[in-house]
Every structure is written in C-alpha cells, then in structure tokens.
Design brief:
Order of helices and strands: EEHEHEHEHEHEHEHEHH
Bound molecules: zinc ion
CATH architecture: Alpha-Beta Barrel
Number of strands: 9
CATH superfamily: Metal-dependent hydrolases
Shape: globular
Oligomer: single chain
Radius of gyration: 17 Å
Structural class: alpha/beta
Largest sheet: 9 strands, mixed
CATH topology: TIM Barrel
C-alpha cells in the first residue's frame, strides 16, 4: 500500500535478457517481488521481456515463465501473455492456452516482432479471443514505428469497442503527449499506460486524467528496464505540485487495474 492506497504497477517484466543489460542477465519473479516490497507496490501485471523472443518456442517458454510466476505468487502477480500475431494459428492457440492457465491479458510488441500493423486484419482472431475472455489487450505504441502509432492503436480500440485496450507508453514522443490524449478521447475502452513517459507529472498524469477521466490512466513503470521508484515519485509530484486529487491518484495507482482485472 502507498498512502493507504492499493498500489499496482501495470507494466512489469521478468525473464532472461538477450545477453546482458545494465549488468543484468535475468530478472526473476523473486527479484520483482523484492522490488515491489521495497517500495510498497502490492501487485504487478507481469509479462516476459519482449526482446529475446523470436521463434514460436521462445514465446511458449516465455509465457510459461510468467504462468509459473503467477502460480507461485498469486497474491502479488497478475500475468500477461505475449504473442506475435504473425505466427498465425500458433499465436491464437497460445493466447487460448495462456488465458486458460490463468494469465489475464495479452500483450503485443510489433516493433520487436516483425512490424505488423496493429490496426490490420491480422489481429482479428486475437482481438476476438480477448473479447470472448474479457481480457485486456496491451499494445506497444510509438509514433515513429509506422505499425503501432497511437493513431493505429486508437483505430484498434475503435474496431473492438468490447475489448479494453491499453496503449503502452503514450506514443514515446514528449511533443505529442497532448495529441495522444486528444486522439484517445472518443474511445472509452482505450486506456493509457504511463510507462516510458517523460519526467513531466502534469503532462503524464494530470492532463490525461482531466481530459479522459481518472478511470482511463494506468500507473506503469516498465520495471526492471526503468525504475518503479522514479515513476512513483512522478505520481507523488503530480499530487503535491500539480493538483492531482487523492481520489484520482487512487484510481490511477491501483483502482483501475483492480477494476480491469477483477482484483480483490
Ligand atoms: Zn515493457
């Protein structure tokens, strides 16, 4: 708990890096829970690291690591499976398998997995499966990608209004943050994740909450690639310096994830 509020980090990773990254070779479920304990985070939505995954078997192994982690830490970890829709029926079967094993959402990272367009027909079977299962769809966004720009993620949300879509990183472009909020606005099933956003509490938390409603912004850090501690400080400053209310903070920090994932 943080300030008496349920704290959920909606964007975390575990797994083996490709080679070594910042002195790390792997980040395990135990490492993740230790970091959470140190800063008061109650629960993490966790997916495998996306970058080492290429072949179908890589995805299967990675998702199994997450399934195991959630079985071992059901009170702390909620699992997100990752697939590459270009794998066709395998990807569809993998989504089904993972959701049956207890994972609660599906993540797509087109930039690392072959540059498929997130608003194309390729996603149809996976989006349908998410709709049937009530599972949110987490989608990497990047204005420079030409395959998962915020415009395309918004079109995906428009195409499947029954699926809760979470746009990760808010487009990765500081100059375009306000634009992302505007283009997300018409789609009530489209949510914004605050991971990999600039050190601008008013632009990342306060403005989106005021324009979209606090129910559409999810606190996320991208731990261990980025620091959950820094992101918690950014959220605290949004309240201390820029007028985010206690109730808005409560929703962003854990209330929304709790609602989307049926967490107690
Ligand atoms: Zn991430």
């Amino acid at each position: 708990m943080i300030d008496g509020m349920l704290a959920v980090d909606a964007h975390c990773h575990i797994g083996e890096f490709r080679g070594e990254r910042f002195g790390m070779r792997r980040f395990t479920a135990d490492d993740l829970v230790e970091r959470m304990d140190n800063c008061g985070v109650d629960r993490a939505l966790v997916c495998h690291l996306a970058s080492p995954l290429v072949e179908q078997e890589d995805f299967k192994r990675a998702n199994n690591v997450v399934v195991q982690a959630t079985w071992q830490q059901p009170d702390r970890l909620t699992g997100v499976c990752i697939v590459n829709p270009k794998h066709g029926p395998f990807a569809q079967q993998e989504v089904r398998r993972c959701l049956e094993a207890g994972l609660k959402a599906v993540k797509l990272q087109p930039v690392l997995h072959g540059y498929y367009d997130v608003d194309s027909d390729l996603l149809e079977p996976i989006a349908r499966r998410c709709a049937d299962a009530g599972a949110p769809l987490f989608v990497h966004s990047d204005f420079n990608s030409k395959c998962c720009t915020p415009y395309q993620v918004a079109r995906l949300a428009a195409r499947y209004p029954q699926v809760n879509v979470v746009m990760l990183h808010m487009g990765l472009d500081f100059e375009m943050l306000a634009k992302v909020v505007d283009l997300a606005r018409p789609y009530r099933n489209l949510h914004l994740d605050t991971s990999q956003t600039p050190d601008a509490p008013q632009a990342v938390f306060v403005h989106p909450v005021r324009r979209l409603g606090a129910e559409r912004v999810l606190f996320g850090s991208d731990m261990p690639l980025l620091s959950v501690e820094v992101n918690l400080a950014k959220l605290a400053l949004a309240q201390q310096l820029f007028g985010l209310s206690q109730d808005e903070k409560r929703q962003v920090l854990g209330g929304n994830a709790s609602r989307l994932f049926g967490l107690a």
